[in-house]
Structures are given as C-alpha cells and as structure tokens.
Amino acid sequence: MDWNLILVTIVTLLVAGYWYVKHKFQYWEKKEVPFVKPIFPYGLLKGMGTTRHTSEIFTEAYKELKGKDVFGGIYFFTQPVVLATDLDFLKNILVKDFQYFHDRGIYSNEKDDPLSGHLFALAGQRWRNLRNKLSPTFTSGKMKMMHRTIIAVAKEFQDYLEPIAQKNQEVEIKDILARFTTDVIGNCAFGIECNSLKDPDTEFRRIGKQVFEFTGLEFTRIFFLAVFQNLGRLLKMKITKPDVSEFFMRLLRETTEYREKNNIKRNDFLSLLLQIKNTGKLEGDDTDLGKMTFEELAAQTFLFFIAGYETSSSTMTFALYELAQHQDIQDRAREEVNNILKKYNGEYSYEACMEMKYIDQIINETLRKHPIVDTLVRSCVQDYQVPGTKHVIEKGTLTSIPVYGIHHDPEIYPDPKKFDPDRFTEENIKNRHPYAWLPFGEGPRICVGMRFGMMQTRVGLANLLSKYRVRTSSKTAIPPVLDPASTVMSPKGGMWLKLEKAS
Hints:
about 500 residues; alpha+beta; 4-stranded mixed β-sheet; about 50% helix
C-alpha cells in the first residue's frame, strides 16, 4: 500500500474542499451585496437546532443587514440565500412578483415519502392544482360546519380544567393545550375521538409529539435537504419519520376504506377530501376540481393535523403566558367573552365567537410577539431583476423573510417587547405597512388553514378565560427560553402557569 499516495490524495481533497467552500463564500461579495460573514461550514446556521433557535439567528442577521439595501446576503451552508430587509421588497416577493417566487423551496419526495407531498411543500403546477382543490374546503361555510365539533371538544377541555382550578394548581399548560388541539384535529380531520385530554399517552398524542421533536442533527438534515433537493431524491431520502408515516398511512387507509365501504359521511375535513378523491367535486358545488389520489389525500390530511395542532396550541400557550402577566388585559378579555355569551344565551355559537374582537386582537398580538413560524422561505424560479437596484437574484436562489425580526423591529412596532393588543385595532392596522405582520405568510401562498387555526384558538381561549384565571407561578420562565430543537416557536420545558377559578 502506497501511504504517500494516500496522504497526497487526502491533502489534495482537503485543499480542494477548502478552496471550493472559500469560492462559494465569496458569492455575495462578488455581487456587491451586503452580507453576514459566514462561519465554516454552516454559513449562518451554526448552533441551529442545538444551542440557538432559528428566530434568534435570523433576527441577528436582519438587524445587521437592515438599511444597507432592500435585501442582504446570508448562507445556508455554502448555499447563498437572500434575506429580505425591506417591506416593499418582500411585498414584491410574496405578491407583486409572485410568479418569480411561487415555490417554498421545501424538500418533498412523493415517491419514497408520500406524506411529504402536501400543499405546504409542493412546487409549481403541482402546488397550483392542489391549492385549487383544497381552497373550497376552507371557506367560511366549511369552517362553520366544523365549529360544532370544536365546541364539543372545548366543553371537555373546560371540564378537564375544573378540578385543577379549584385547587389553584400550577400546571404545564402547553401540554394540556396540545392535548386539546390534538383532540380537535383528530375529530375535525379524521372523525376520530383521540381522548388525549383523558389519556395523555394515546398513540395519537405520542405520534403528534414526534412530528415536531428533532435532534440537532435532524434539524440540520432538514436544511440540507432544502438546499440539495435533487441529491436527496436521488438517494431516496425521506423527511417524514418512519413511525409517523406508518401510523398515518395505516390510520387513513383503514378510515377511508371503512367510510367508503359503509357510505359514512361526517362534517369533517376527511369527508370533504373523500368527495374530491372520488368525484372531483364537493357536494352542492358543480365546480370540477379534479379527482385526488389516496396518497394526495393522505398528505393533505397529515398537513391538516401537523399544522393545526402544534401552531394553535403554541399560540394559546404564549397568549396565556402574556395574559398571566397582564391581568388588566385578561380581565378585559374575560368581560368581552362573558358579555357576548350572555347575548347568545351562553352558547359558543359560530356567530358569538366571531364577535370576540378583543380576543382576536390578543391572538394577533401574540402572533406578532411570538410568531409560530418565525421565518418564511421562497425559491426564485427564474432570474429576477430587483426593482430599483442593479441586483439580479439568480434562478434557484432561496429567499428568506425574517418574520420574527420584522415583528420585533422597533421602527415598525415601538417598544416591541411590550404586549399590547391595541396594536391591532382597525385604526392602528391601517396606519402600519400592510406587510409588517406575517404569521400566516401573505399572497397566493398564505396559509390555507388560517381561518381554521384562528377559529380553534379563539374557541380555546374563550372557553378557558370565561371560567378561569391564569397567573404566573414560581415555575414560570420569564422570558421563556425557546426550544432550539423545535421547528416552530415553542418554550423549552413547556409553560408553567397557575390556574384558578375566575371571580
């Protein structure tokens, strides 16, 4: 064995690798674009998923680059990425010049990982076709149809809290809220009573936790697949965890076969998708949406679950955390809820819940201060001349929008750490840039389930606040420490609050 040859080969490869990375890290400098100095080999992403949450990383970059140009340059590993720092520029990305940025740049592999082929991840014409099919399932009429189901689960939620409040107990509220939203989604998406409130160890709850729990290595893998998508598909790499995929595919196959065999119809999301799958239409509507495969149905139902349960439970968690520190805001919210309930004879009707405007302001301010999705990403699908500049964003370049950074920009939201629902009065909204609040995204790729998420969150908060008061306890972390291994904004170790009966 020629050890000299082996040594020379290794050294040559290391030197070649060094010069390759160095060359890649000169991209933004050569483009004369202001950039954040990359750290080998992570680029911007050092510590992501292990010691630092993505919101912290992107907010630091936003602060460093804002005002230097309409955008700056960052790196995901060696991949150059645009970071939007100007609200008019990000309006172009999300709406005005959407045809250049209609893809999210998220990895999907429908062939080897069917559940990854959902609306959030799909690109191009596949996304357009699916969006057209799904949009009619999220109209206000369809939301009203599911409202009764949410109210039934909310009553169980309210009853579950009763003995806890009577003892003035400290509770880890995030887990309880996640069990509530798991039961809501289980009913509204699958027509299944998950009973997570009664039994926190149900399979549905266990699998739901797995979806959002990642090690630092797994977190890095997600970004790697976003950057090197073709390589990932060539290697047949999957984004969905095996246990999660097996559970949902089995559950949906058994449930759809049972419903179709016995001609069972329910007022839930799965029933709507089955109508599209089998006829290409929704009952009472002659619009031809085109049929859907079982795999497409499974992926969209899976998305409904993962998007609906975690985002809403985390939003309610942060809302209660803020209300526990601001008893005056909490009292005002409780008064609104109880006055509206009196008007509607104590019923949480769809119309009653839609009248809870201050509750909506609280939710909006919570999503301003604690946006569950802290960064939006779009992929440039053709060379794009940035208006008013000499810059061209090249085809294939990812563009990131630092939602958390924008939401905490003192030039947009004075005293951004202060929790103030009055930022979202009609007057104050009109006086602010329309793209300064982006918890659901914006434009044609705005979250299709936004109405459902708001409805579920509104009902959950109203039911809790009408009877109970939340306070901080000795275990409440102020400010909360974010879990770096979570793909969404989530407090590490949960959220401990004290629950008592409202006087």
